[in-house]
Amino acid sequence: MKNLVATTTIALLTACTVGPDYVRPTADIPAAFKEMEGWKKAQPRDQELRGKWWETFNDPLLNNLEEQVSVSNQNLVQAAAQFRQARALVQSARSGYLPTVAGGTSVTRGQSSSSSGNRNRAFAQSSSSPSTSYSLSLDAIWEADLWGRVRRTVESSEAGAQASAADLEALRLSIQAELAQNYFQLRALDTQKQLFDETVAAYQRSLILTQNQYAAGIVAKVDVIQAQTQLKTTQAQALDIGVQRAVLEHAISLLIGKPASSYSLSAAPLTASPPPIPVGIPSSLLERRPDIAAAERRMAAANAQIGVAEAAYYPSLTLAATAGFQSSSFSNWLTAPSRFWSLGPALAQNLFDGGLRRAQTDQAIAAYDANVAGYRQTVLTGFKEVEDNLAALRILEEEAAVQDEAVQNARQSVVLTTNQYKAGIVNYLNVALVQRSALVNERTAVDVLNRRLAASVLLIKALGGGWNASDLPTPGELARGAAYPRQDVVQVR
């Protein structure tokens, strides 16, 4: 017993953790965003994005829809379940620190031969009487984590669970952004439909005017035909908007977890405007984007797996203990004379495996290298998305100003040309051309506003939507099975 205790103590004191300790690899981070020059900065009180970023658009209905995403979206339900699965794997890995204890009891009745003669006389000999054996035992086995295999496994599981939590937040942000884009596009279609309805009414008045002038012999029949064609074409275009709107309405119902057949949005014009968005410095993007955080945590998990693979090169020390009662008499079964016990260590080393351990180590190293490349690609993609949408917002703002002037000029041209037509100075073709130009410019202005709003949403998404890597569950929270996110957790029962 003294030797056993001494051996165990020495083994634990000299235990080490093999494999490389994790250090976050570097990534190419620019000093500043190229498109930030001339960017309109937010007010001092709004230097950081907030969790409910959609509230900056000041649309109560959009706010209500976004709140339903975290509650009812089934893709989020699935991702939340996957996170709970990853969290359970952490608890499973931590169980390796503790011994395995099993208990069992058995009652066996049998008879053994008492013959001691040769084979020819074996069947002629008498046998001993049947006997019953009673056994009650408790077995414990524990493998000392000498080389850190369990520690690295726990480390990998914790990093994997954190990556799963970041995946959940990346999916949540993606769905929220998609919902906002669909909502603004639907409102843009509502605005265009309203524009078409007003235009159709104006074309109907023009048709009546042309018919009256034709009846008076002032204009030719062709003017009436042109007016009728223009009216019917515009009516067809107005009807076609209904198809696009229905598709967007169905997409929104899917995102908020409602059947498309039982959900509808009443028409309303697009009134939102792009809000000022705090961009921050490029280096902060590494902590603000959940997809970057997920890629970084996967690197940490892959790094720990290298240690798990390398630990297989070293011997394993197992301590086993067994104690219980065993007797052939039920009355004497659970008595002191029927006790038995055993205790001892076992040291095992794999001497030959045909290159299995080397292959597993190479596989772990290659998986880590792949995760490093994936992390750096995710970082580069993040900077690209920020630059893309900064440029889009800057250019579209300039385009919107020019387009507004074009709209005003087109409206004025319609008034002037219509008056000339009434006076008989120009034919109806001139009226049709300026009216068509006015409609195109009005629709373009609505489209530019929709694109500006979409770029605002995508910029917020590219900046992480107010999320931060410090929101990830800590190893201690994962070990306790704490809920994540810390507010509401989507679960299925």
Walk me through what this model shows.
With 493 residues, the chain is of the alpha+beta class. 57% of the residues lie in helices and 10% in strands. The chain contains ten helices and four strands; from the N terminus they run αααββααααββααα. It has helices spanning 2-13, 60-72, 74-94, 149-215, 221-255, 285-288, 290-311, 356-422, 428-462, 475-480, and strands at residues 100-110, 131-144, 316-327, 339-348. It has a four-stranded antiparallel β-sheet with strand order 1-2-3-4. α2 runs antiparallel to α4 and α4 (149-215) runs antiparallel to α7 (290-311). The longest helix has 67 residues, at 149-215. It is elongated and about 135 Å long. The two termini are 52 Å apart. Residues 10-14, 42-46, 122-126 and 487-493 have low confidence and may be disordered.
Number of beta strands? 4
User: Uncertain regions: pLDDT < 50 for 5+ in a row?
Assistant: 10-14, 42-46, 122-126, 487-493
Strand order, biggest sheet?
1-2-3-4
Number of helices: 10
Largest sheet: 4 strands, antiparallel
Q: Can you lay out the helices and strands and say which pair or pack?
A:
Elements: H1 2-13, H2 60-72, H3 74-94, E1 100-110, E2 131-144, H4 149-215, H5 221-255, H6 285-288, H7 290-311, E3 316-327, E4 339-348, H8 356-422, H9 428-462, H10 475-480
Antiparallel strand pairs: 1-2, 2-3, 3-4
Helix pairs in contact: 2-4, 3-4, 4-5, 4-7, 4-9, 7-8, 8-9
